[in-house]
Amino acid sequence: MAYKVVIGIEIHCELKTKTKMFSSAPLSFAQTPNSCVNEVDLAHPGTLPCVNKNAIKYAIMACSAFNLEIDTLVKFDRKNYFYTDLPKGYQITQQFHPIGRNGFIDINVDGNSKRINIERLHMEEDTAKQFHFNDETLIDYNRAGTPLVEIVSDPDMTSGVEAVAYISKIQEILLYLGVSDVKMEQGSMRCDINISLMKQDAEKLGTKVEIKNLNSLSNVLKAVEFEISRQSDMLDNAELIVQETRRFDETTKSTVSMRKKEGNVDYKYFPEPNIFPIRLPLDWVNEIVNNLPELPDARRVRYHDVYALEEYDANVLVSNKLLADFYELVMQDCDDGKICANWIISELIAQLSKTNQSIATMKCDSKNFANLINMITKKEISGKQAKQIFAQVVDGENCIELVKSSGMKQISDEGAILQIVIDVLNDNPQSIEDFKNGKDRAIGFLVGQVMKRSKGQANPSMANQLVSAQIKNY
Amino acid sequence: MGENVMLNEEIVLKRISDAYNFAKNVQEELNAMVTFVDYNDQLENMNMHKSGKMFGVPIVLKDNVNTKGIKTTASSKMLENYVPIYDATIVTKLKDAGAIIIGKSSMDELAMGGTNLTAATGSVKNPYDTNRMSGGSSGGSASLVGKGVVSMAIGSDTGDSIRKPAAFCGCVGLKPTYGRISRYGIIPYSSSLDHVGCFTSNVKDAAIALEVLAGRDDLDMTSSYEPVDNYSEFLSGDIKGKKIAILKNVTDNISNVDVLKCFNESIEKLKQQGAIVEEVILNEKLMLAILPTYYLIANCEATANHANLNGICYGNQVESQTSEQIMIKSRTNGFGPLIRKRFVIGSYGLFVENQEKLFKQAQKVRRLIVEEYDKVLKDFDFVCAPASASIAPLLDDKHLDQLSDEYLVAENHMIISNFTGYPSISVPMGFVDKMPVGINFTAHKFDEGNLLNLAYTHELCNDFKAMKAGN
Questions:
Q1: Which of A267, B344, B387, B398 could join B440 via S-S bond, C-beta 3.0 to 4.6 A?
Q2: Can you state the angle between helices A296-307 and A160-177, rounded to 10 degrees?
Q3: Which domain holds residue B358?
Q4: Nearest CB to A48: which of B74, B183, B304?
């Protein structure tokens, strides 16, 4: 039987501030374990938290981009539980007064727009990272105290595809805001998916299962689809679904039970006494909200309006911010947005993946790339010629030098080409004869001769045009 | 203190070594020190602080004040081997002012108690009678200043933990406004009630100490930006026209006539100095609620504050198979029975099913008490009452009825200043049965200057040294 699928998503995102949420220790990724910590992160007795102003700024930016109502009275609470990755024995979070409430984003699935409501966004601190071995556990406190925002959606999604669209939209927006690296594979963005099934006509929600350990969008899709089929099968067989937390197992491409939820854990939340409520100055908040970086949707529209890009091209560029940023740099020295986009989308991406590079690591700067595009659009070189030197250009070689040294500069001087055309026509009376007898192929042959005689440098379309015009004079 | 111009190095060194030796000599008698600090390192750069307000003054810190590289135990077995990697903000301030730390003093375990009987190193004795308590939780500091070993010692005050032992040990105990002194680096008890303060042998020294200790600290978000006054300049001895309210609820509940006699004599003298004194009555129901309200808030906050002491990062670790078992066993083994009881109470008060009727209710009552107090204080400059209904209890006092009105009101009224955060000071007002008794004054927030002047004026007309000699 086909069931109604209900999906809600909680996303934890590390903010890329310089220092931690409540201490002045630096943030770290892949640093020597336990090197980016101070007495506050380690919860030395007597230490006190100090709120990171930039973390609040980033949270406000996110709230604004997700259309959330911002609570300008910032309050923190303690979430109490004993665990080895939690040095204080409590986590400072915003249980009772999240900084953002009641927002939404619009996702796009199969060309249709759908609104996903966001219940809340709150700030908190990350825990330490644990490494479990057979007989010991190692703890790296570098991550402890890293600022996080937790974004909780309403249960508005109904399929794996929607879940993926939602997560990637959130990811894209946070990336464009510049507030997080949003790397699922590195854990700077972590998604917990709540999923339940119910009969089409049922009024009561089914029992929900939480899926953790999803380190890529493709795993999100696989996990949700697996879970839908697992729960469907169980319901078909009249089995009872238990409320539990499952993790996605990459090797088996399935979800595996981690722990059953027997009643809710009592975290004994209470207001954090060491941080008085902070009244944010309204003009500070407004300044942040009014100066948000351009969001991806706005950029899509601009690419259409300014560069005349089709929706597809705009999408491909915008969904890869580095690529889009490079495109814009190139366009500072280019006129034809469409051709530039084509070369970036089809040729550049392929070349980078072939050589295992990325936009960030490639040596070609935007000016050099722009020169290449300009030579193409001005018909100074042909597309075919451009492709011949493309790999070297991407590797950082100067494209103007390359064209010069390989002597491939295209002849677009009409007079020069005309002379070659007349020479070729004079030397090939048989072809003229063939043409007059209705054999159109003769034109192709003649153009080929022109190209040959120009050592491939004649502008092909110009050659074609001139041959067709001149042949009538014979 | 504060007379650095006259001092040469030799005198200073002698003063420090005298204090250190004195402390060593009375250790067996008072048991007030947990750790004696080798002060030689501090002497090396001493001349850098020659202009400091406390240049060359030997001092003692309560053992919940973190000292980098020096064991800080909070008198708990759990932390008996804990050596901090950082200094509390006040330690830096004191050192910068030229003070020399000669020791870390005993306290009730994790500052939870009013007797100093619960210290891991055993009970602290009263300098006036070693069969009696010092009071707590800052008992070691009180006892050492009361004995005259040092002229200033740091304490912390969550529910009269400076002011009560000060009264019992015959010294000045100052708890300034919440946020006046940074709490960064003080092992906490209850964050919203904890205050840092000091014991001194006279009010002038308290004023100087406060000048050194007070001020905004960016590491403590609850510390205040309010400018720090030059408190010494307030000590004029002039209180003419100042209005003092006597808490009648407290005096009415005191049965010890000698204590009341001392108190009334003090009040008479203040009147002679031109103070206007009136009795006021607070809502008795609220007064009876002070202690339970305090216990709930303090224990709820404490249970979270000490969740870091789990044997993983801190505290003596008891080995076991799982990390959960390590935490359970380490905590069971490391904390005394009273502490464990308080953690259970605190945890119970925070359970989701209890929080409304216990923790949140306690916070509401706290607010009601503060509002009631504010109503009185708005017409007065100060509030005043005896610091305790009696002299320091005997060490084996088992007769204390903790549910009597006398205990609930007269022994706990000073907790109100922990609820309000207002500055409050206890100073000696005389002797009863050869034991010192104290009077407590409280002022408006950040009015430490006038509060100290009132205490100073009281000191001027009560010659404590003469009383002590005649005792």
A1: B387
A2: 80
A3: 1-471
A4: B183
Which of B191, B192, B308 shows the shortest C-beta gap to A43?
B308
Do the beta carbons of residue B12 and residue B43 sit within 8 Å? no
Task: Assign residue B31 the CATH number of its domain.
Answer: 3.90.1300.10
What stretches of B269-312 adopt beta strand conformation (E)?
A: 276-280
Residue B93, pLDDT score: 98
Given a contact cutoff of 8 angstroms between Cβ atoms, the answer to whether B240 and B204 are in contact is no
Q: Which chain B residues are Cβ-neighbours of A51 within 8 angstroms?
A: 221
What beta strand segments (E) does B312-414 contain? 382-386
**Around B442, how many Cα atoms within 13 Å sit in the side-chain half-sphere?**
28
Q: How high is the pLDDT of residue A410?
A: 67
What is residue A9's three-state secondary structure?
A: strand
DSSP strands (E only) in B122-192: 125-126, 129-133, 152-157, 172-175
CA atoms of B265 and B260, how far apart (whole Å): 8
Least Cα separation, residue B396 to chain A (angstroms)? 32
Mean pLDDT within A317-328: 93
**Mean pLDDT, consecutive 10-residue segments, chain B of 471 residues?**
62 94 98 97 87 95 98 97 97 97 98 94 97 96 98 98 98 98 98 98 98 98 97 98 98 96 97 98 96 96 96 90 92 94 96 96 98 95 97 83 80 97 97 96 98 98 81 61
Query: Closest Cα partner for A345 from A312, A298, A300?
Result: A312
Query: d(Cα A118, Cα A466) in Å, to the nearest integer?
Result: 63
Sign, Cα dihedral of A59, A61, A65, A70: positive
Catalytic, B141? Answer: no
ipTM comes to: 0.95
Reported as type and span, the H/E element at residue B211 is helix B203-213
Question: Is residue B330 annotated as part of the catalytic site, yes or no?
Answer: no
Q: Where are the domains of chain A?
A: 4-284, 294-405, 414-471
β-bridge pairing A129-132 and A137-140? antiparallel
pLDDT at site A438: 84
Q: How many domains does chain B have?
A: 1
- Residue B218: its chain A contacts at CB < 8 A? 50
Three-class secondary structure of residue B186 per DSSP: strand
Segment holding B459, helix H or strand E: helix B448-460
CB–CB of A78 and B74 under 8 A? no
> Are B360 and B407 spatial neighbours (Cβ–Cβ below 8 Å)?
no
CATH code of the domain made up of A414-471: 1.10.10.410
Structure tokens at B111: 């500052």
**How do residues A80-98 score in pLDDT, each as one tens digit?**
999 999 999 999 999 999 9
Residue A318: which residues within 8 A CB-CB, separation 6 or more? Answer: A172, A296, A299, A300, A303, A324
Give the gap in angstroms from C-alpha A130 to the nearest C-alpha of chain B. 12
Question: What residues of chain A lie within 8 A of the CB of B355, using their CB?
Answer: 268, 270
Question: What is d(CA B113, CA B161) in angstroms, rounded to the nearest whole number?
Answer: 8
Chain A positions contacting chain B at CB under 8 Å are: 39, 42-51, 78, 80, 82, 84, 87-90, 137, 266, 268, 270, 273-276
